[in-house]
Model the fold of this input.
Amino acid sequence: EDEPPPPPSMPLPPLFVDLQQSLVSERATFTHRLTVIGNWAQRRLLQNATSSRSTFDHLKDWIVLRRQKELDAADGLITIIKEHIESEDFIRTKLNMENAHLHQRPNVLLRAPDPPVVPPPVEGVSPFRWTIEQLQGLLEAVSNATAALSAKARMLPSATMLNLLMQMTSVEVGDRKPVLVPASWRNCGTNRLKTLIAGFEHPHSAGSVDVVEFLLHVGLMHSPLGWPSLNTLMEIRKVLEPQTPTGCSWPDYYVSTEQFLQTPLFADSSGLEEAFAKKFKPHTTQAPGMFDRSSNQLRWVAQVMRRFVAPTSKQEAWELECGHYDYKVRKADEKERISEMLDDVRTTPSNSPRQPDADMPALLGVGGHDPDSDNNEDAHSVGAVSVESTGRPEKPRPEAPQNLPQLTEDSVSVRQFLSYLCLGSTPEEGLARAFAVLSPAGTASGSVPGASAHAAMLQLGVRPMPAGLPGDSKPALPALHKFCEELDNKYGGQVRATDLVGKSEAQEMLKALNLGRRHKRAEVDKLFPKVNK
Done:
């Protein structure tokens, strides 16, 4: 049987058609998006693969470069070590490896650098001038000779000085002992040395030599700077006078060696010492350093003054006053003793007080007044007649000065070394220089206070005190009151009234006391002239 035909299809609803179309459209859009994402992902993966491959290639290059750098650094280190081994020198700078690099650090030293080679200073030897080394030997020899006499001795017997110089100047052929004297002094002969020593003997100290004066003359002999001038001494005063200690007066005090070395004693502004050193260069394989003669000579002078330091002028003035006082007491005792010995009419027992006899002293001329006696200042007037009641000094013995500057091992006497340097070519020049440098006013013109003139003229606190006169042991130098009295009486001065001493009066007094040699330099240069041989 035939089936009946299906009924005709109904038309689709519009809503269904719209739904189907929307689904197809969404499906196409989703498919497109998936395709775009897939293509992007594929491109990113390809890009990452290319980049990774390039990165690994760079890493490989870096590894090869690092290896090469490490090998180069190690090779450089080995080369440096090899060079030091071959040169037998130390590695002085720091070496370190950092990140395959060899770093040399020149500012970081492994040991202290070798100091620069500075040649030692060597003094040239002149045939006529003493070197500092020779002066040191002379000072040591003279110091030992004086120490054998006394620890504080500043005078040496002429015979001892002659034997000492004979030993130093005697040189035999082939003798290898050190050169102690300049060439012009070697084997100079006994007569020449005797003449030299005689030039340092003074009227009140015959047979002895002032070692400080002798050493300074030898040290300054033939110096291109010459003997210190008055201007130089005044410059030294400007340096030392402000350092006067409290309670002291110029120049009676001591300074230390350090203060002494600050003085311009051998200031060589014109280069004379340098020119002299160039003229007498030492013969060495290498050029030596420059020898500073001025500073070394100043240190040598300080050693001389420190070794033979003198007491203060106040101390020696007091000792001189005491010497005159003791002399007067001895003289009075001697008069009394002689009177008792010659008094035949004396009836009193020897152990009873002696009764004075007014007639006997006048008869004998023992107890009477002597117009030329040194005791005149102790005489007093009784009815217009000058008499002495006891014959002894009425004044008490002078008291020792107090608050004197302390003397140490490092002390240098200002008065002592300036007085020696004030010596002139003539006694008048030396006295004028001493008055200008040592006086309180510090000027060469005008008058000087009596005490200052007395100390400067007699060189108290400078030279050793001379021994008493033969016979009665009277002090060879006058005391201050006697000095002023002589100036007033003999030279028409007014010292006791004004306490001032004029230059002309002082020069006349210098001649009368025969003290000119103490202010004059010895003529050493004429005995040992400049001889280039």
